[in-house]
Amino acid sequence: MKEVILHMLVQFLKKEKFRWLKLSLLYLILSFLLTFPLLTTPGFFGGWDQSFHLNRIVDLTANLRHLHPISFINTTAFSQIGLAVNTFYPYLTLLPFAILHLIIPNLTLSVNLGLTALLFTNFVCAHIAMTRFTKLAYQDNSVNRPIIFAIAYGLSGYYIFNLIVRFDLGECLVMIILPIFAVGLYDILLGDWQRWYWFVFSATTIAYSHLLSTVIIAFITVIIVLCSFFKMDHRRQRLLTLCKSSLFILINTLFLLIPLITTASKVDVTSPKLGSLSKQAMSGFSAFVLSTGNVINPKEATHGVNLGIIILASILICTICFKRLSKFGKKMYVCGMFAFFLCTFFFPWKLFDHTPIRILQHPWRLLIFVNLFMAGCLSDYLTQLNKRTWQIVSLILMITVTFSTIFIYTSRTELKYPTSRLEKLTMQTKYMDYEPVKSHSYLSKIEKHQGTIDGRKYVFNKRTPLPDGMLYHIPLASHEQKLDVPFLDYGNLTVSAQNIRLPSHVSKRGTLCFSLPANSDSISIHYQTPVSFKIAAAISFSGILFYFYLWFKFRIKE
Question: Where are the bilayer-spanning segments (predicted)?
Answer without folding.
Answer: 20-39, 88-104, 111-134, 146-165, 172-190, 196-227, 239-261, 304-322, 334-352, 364-383, 390-410, 531-552
